[in-house]
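User: I'm putting together notes for a lab meeting next week and I want to include a structural view of one of the chains we've been expressing. I don't have a solved structure, so I'd like a prediction I can at least talk through. The sequence is below, exactly as it appears in our construct file.
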Amino acid sequence: MRIFLAFIIPLLLSTLSFSQEKVTGIVQDAETGKAVPYVNIGIISLMKGTVSNAEGKFSLGYTAEIDSVTFSAIGYETDTFSIKDILADEVILLNPATYNLDEITVKEKALGRIKELGYNLNKKRQSISFGSTLLGTEIGGLIEIDRQTLIYSAHFIFNHTGDDSLLFRVNLYEMNGDKPVRNLITENELFRAPKEPGTVLVNLRGYDIVTEENVLLTVEWIEAVSLNNSEIQDISFRADRTMRKPNTWFRTTSQAPLLKMDQFVKYNIGFYLTAQQVKK
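Assistant: Thanks for the context. Below is the predicted structure for the 280-residue chain, given as structure tokens.
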């Protein structure tokens, strides 16, 4: 059984019904002038979004020159420009951000064994897919953490795979109560769609991620051969229907909100972390 999140389709159709006017541009580092790849770009009021390519170039539909376009990228400050400004100068400059992360020291002797956090669904059960064909669409699972945790790797279980031209970004959001906040992965962590079903492992040891809060582990679609293809619909992840504590979240496109899926379908998605936690 494969769930395609059909409840999102009316929203997507409404966004596609807007004017087909398009604005193009390139995103660059304000200090170095170098292209900024895979920037999340969107008109929040219209729920329209996209992602810049590896060279920082983008194209986005709009309805009026007063529309405000928000740009955000890992390692940079989020900024907003009007369509009018972008039409006048297609170069968008983003300022590098300064990360002020709390320093947390974990003593090795205080750590327990390496364990899995999340849902490693061994049996092939249901499937769940993104439900959107817009760049920046995202799907993920909430992982509960009850004490200081050192994170080593992320794992994503694919039930169906698509064209290996599809490129994904891994995001790990720390939760503040019921709200995803900062991304604990401070660089673009990318992988291509696998050619065969199975588990994709992404090594996160280089980030020295330590947290005491719940986290939201997601996969975000950021690149394909063309924006008009529907290959993303061929991708699906292993899931398990549950009525107790469903953990699945989604985003329809760049700059759209991350939302719980439990008001539509109640599933745990087959995403998990390997980690060590401080002993109780």
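A couple of points you could mention at the meeting. The first strand starts at residue 2 and ends at 3. The CA atoms of residues 17 and 50 lie 16 Å apart.

User: Perfect, that's what I needed.
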